[in-house]
Amino acid sequence: MADLKEQVLRTSGVNPLKCMRCGKCSATCPSYDAMEYHPHQFVYMVEKGDIETLMQSESIYKCLSCFACLERCPRNVEPAKLVEAVRLAVIRQQGQNHLKPEQIPAMLDEDLPQQAIVSAFRKYSK
Amino acid sequence: MIFSYFPGCTLKTKAKELDRYARASAEALGFTLEELPDWQCCGGVYPMAKNETATKLSSVRALVSAREKGQALVTLCSACHNVIKQVNHDMQTDEDIQMKANNYMKLETPYTGETEVLHYLEVLRDKVGFDKVAAAVKNPLTGKKIAAYYGCLLLRPGKVMQMDNPENPKILEDFIRAIGAEPVLYPQRNECCGGYMTMEEKSVAVSRSTTVMDSAKEFGAEMVITACPLCLYNLKKNSGSELPVVYFTELLAEALGVK
Amino acid sequence: MRRIGVFVCHCGTNIASTVDVKAVAETLGKEPAVVFATDYPYMCSEAGQNIIKEAIKEHKLEGVVVCSCSPRMHEATFRKAVASAGLNPYMLEVANIREQCSWIHKDKEEGTAKAIVLGRAAIAKVQLNAPLTAGESPVVKRALVIGGGIAGIQTALDIAEAGYPVDIVEKEPTIGGKMTQIDKTFPTLDCSSCILTPKMVECSQNENITIYSYSEVEAVTGFVGNFSVKIRRKKRYVDETKCTGCGICTEKCPVKNVPSAYDLGLKNHRAIYIPFAQAIPNVAVIDADYCNKLTKGKCGICSKFCSAGAINYEQEDQIVEEKYGAIIAATGYNPISLDGYDEYAYSQSKDVVTSLEFERILKADGPTEGHLERLSDGKQPKTIVFVQCVGSRQSADAAHGGCGKEYCSKICCMYTAKHAMYCREKYPDTDVYVFYIDVRTPGKNYDEFYRRAVEQYGVHYIKGMVGKVAPQADGSLMVQASDLLSNEQLHIKADMVVLAAAIEPNKSARPLATMLTASMDTNDFFTEAHAKLRPVESPTAGVFLSGVCQGPKDIPETVSQASAAAAKALGLLAKDKLSCNPCVAHSDEMMCNGCSSCANVCPYGAITYSDKEFRGPNRTTLIRRVASVNAAVCQGCGACTVACPSGAMDLKGFSTSQIMAEVDAICK
Do B50 and A10 touch (CB under 8 A)? Predict the structure, then answer.
């Protein structure tokens, strides 16, 4: 859908046309095996406008935000920003937070730093 | 030398050692970390979206606070450093964010990224000098084989963080040499530990931290040091490795005799 | 008033679609002084030119205005046409209604109005044109080739063959360039040295060719047909006329740890050395940084053993000054530095090498004597991974941006296929992977060559890039890459990784371009005069381009271009005289006050000052310092006319009054 694509591009500030389909982002991604769709596919699917498939996939929650794909991409496509924009397209909808406060107590242990909880909330909810 | 200091929420609670040893070492090396009078949690991760302003404001406030004092802003936690430095870069280069943040904050003088953001390691390297650090060492950690774990947030994105060569950094290895120990190089030292994924899908964090620790051990490390509370947690609890993982400031304090 | 003729070109639809050419011709035809005006589809064609010639004769035209494309395209054409009809060729003005009008406007009304204004300005100018005569300058019949690789060698051989003397200046101690380091060349897989060395020998034996090896161009002055060049012959500490190349000194020298440039630092040679066995000239050279005698004053063994008495520790650099009619740049390339690509662990493991280093490993005179061995432990690699596009095709704003190149280096897909096939042929138990983005095989028999690697030799070509090369504690290399077609992230345990590093022009090219005043692009490749129609000439007259210094290319293209550059140079050398541009500056001696403002701004050094006698009042003689312009060197840039405070300096063909007339016409 043109609307969704435009929204994702505007949120991310990314131009997916810059991608030369080399696959270095996916080669670098430490979370590759946990994802159904991989960074290079993300860029391609956003360009095609196939945003909804991505929004329904669990892959968007598996990005570690480690910026390795940003660092190694030879065309400065910044796939991580695209992944975040698609994730936000889901999360910013009403009632669509991926991580809810009620889920937290079960995940706690005495050593877990606040940083983990705060970061997860920032990534997975409004 | 006096610097404004942003500790971050975790350094006040679960990672007190990182903070405590840092301050003690600073005293011993002749610089002071003045905690900002008023600061809020940085958020842990840099919000990449172009149309998010509110989540960046706590960083902007910290930066403005440092500017008021005419001091550089020092951070210790890798995550805080990453967030604040990237937001500072936005305030310098992204007109839209600059305008929106300034409109909201209604400062007397708009903030356009004037404050210098430094990580504690950069203070050691660039303001104090590793040679002076080495000279101040009373208990050198001679013969200890230590692996530095950078993780991702100190180094990337390289163009913004500008701390070191993201693919072949040496600031922590130089630090290790300065405290008298032997640095161990291994290929996973700049690859992600799993970060916040421990909350969402723990198996990824387990897999990543195990890979990192195994690599360090393979190359002969006896100990791993880091600057990030979340990295420490992942490497200690999710990797299943027995190698000790400590904050670099703890070793610094030990070497300087202020532990 | 002069009788002016106006000719408006349609240029097909290039002009006619945004400018109403008939209206332009009609309107300009009504201008005072215009006695004839017409339009035509292609004014530059033979028919178009004939219209001009006939109009000159029929209407007794004294000035011609052509409204057409940029004068850079066809001013010369129209000048010739006008001249053949008996009118001085400088009584012609071109109004650019294409590049400066039809190509930038979309509105036809606007375009037409502007074209009329431009035409009026040209008419106003041509009224004031003076019939100029082109001067002549001589041509020195000698060529200079800068760079002694295959490009320089081929160009020199072709020029020499035509009977003209040619000098090759090469900064290494031997000619031959990169081909001397290569083992086999694609797509025929013939031995590089076998095809190169006969040409190198020919160069040394040809009477017309002089080789200045271990030399560099230091300064260039002059202009086309008449260049003065200073060449610095660097000190070898060996007398080239006496050394027989016997090589005894290289065996006796006690200093053994000098990294060999020929072997890219993978092997060492002595402080006194001959770069490789087939070097031309086959003369030893001493590396002054390592020689004990030159650094500490102790030793002198080589001199004792030299039966020819050729060693001379007191030797100095020598400057040679020579005049040339044509200069050909053939400075070649080098692989880029891989400092910015540490994800591939190049600086962290000896077994990660560049393709050129791999070439040295394969070649029989290299560090491993032609055996495929790991440089770390000498073992044969069982799994080799080739990584393409390291530093090429990279956008300027990428994280590595500063280190990489935006262009495709062109030769890497082919040489990697060559390397891969070599490995599989000689060591069939070795597994070979090539990770690529695209496979580019644009030459004759090239794609067939690459397909053989896949289909006949079983090389695993995988579409996807390598993200990281992680050296393992056991000495192997863990290669993490993506396979885009099967959607997998691969982890391959390799014994050797070969990086196809981008190529860039030799670092000496940029200072050379400054010396030659030859233009260069932001990648330091010499720019050609026209990308398609004049690929071997620099826009600077008299300078020609040969080989990779103009753009990445393989050996067949290099040799073709080298011969083309030679042909162009010969076209110049074959002339006895060149006609100069008469639109040069000229100083009015009665107004010149000798202030030197003009000489200070002249980029070509065309203005000199002299004391001249003038008649003063009461029959006295005054001596005044006045400027004079060398018409052969002046390029007509006009900077002096602007700088001159008294207005004494003016430009023929573009005088101040002519330009003011144009402005008046436009502002009317």
Answer: yes
Query: Is the Cβ–Cβ distance between B136 and B171 less than 8 Å?
Result: no
Same domain flag for C341 and C480: yes
Q: What is the dihedral of CA B115, B121, B123, B126, to 10 degrees?
A: -110
Backbone region of residue C602 per phi and psi (left: phi > 0; alpha: psi in -120 to 50; beta: other values) = beta
Residue of C nearest to B168 (CA): C342
β-bridge partners, C543: C327
Q: Are residues C150 and C102 in the same domain?
A: no
Whether residue C311 is contained in a domain is answered as no
The domains of chain B are located at 2-120, 136-256
Query: Is the CATH number 2.40.440.10 carried by domain B2-120?
Result: no
Cβ atoms A61, B199 nearer than 8 A: no
- Is C410 part of any domain? yes
For the domain spanning B136-256, the CATH number is 3.40.50.11810
Query: Which class does domain A2-93 fall in?
Result: mainly alpha
Length of chain B: 259
Convert the pLDDT of each residue in C26-78 to its tens digit. 999 999 999 999 999 999 999 999 999 999 999 999 999 999 999 988 999 99
- In sequence order, the β-bridge partners of residue C462 are C435
- Would C207 be classed as within a structural domain? yes
Hey, is the C-beta of A30 within 8 angstroms of any chain C C-beta?
Answer: no
Task: Say if the Cβ atoms of B159 and C343 lie within 8 Å.
Answer: no
Name residues whose C-beta falls within 8 Å of residue B151's C-beta, 6 or more positions apart in sequence.
B78, B190, B192, B193, B195, B226, B227, B228, B231
Domain containing C76 — which CATH number? 3.40.50
φ, ψ at C534 (rounded to 5°): -140, 65
pTM (two decimals): 0.89
Range of the domain at C383: 334-504
Residue pair C146/C191 in contact (Cβ under 8 Å)? The answer is: no
Query: Could you report the per-residue pLDDT of B199-256, keeping only the tens digit for each?
Result: 989 999 999 999 999 999 999 999 999 999 999 999 999 998 999 999 999 999 999 9
Instruction: Supply C562's token pair.
Output: 């080298």
Considering only the beta carbons, identify the residue of B157, B168, B187 that sits closest to C470.
Answer: B187
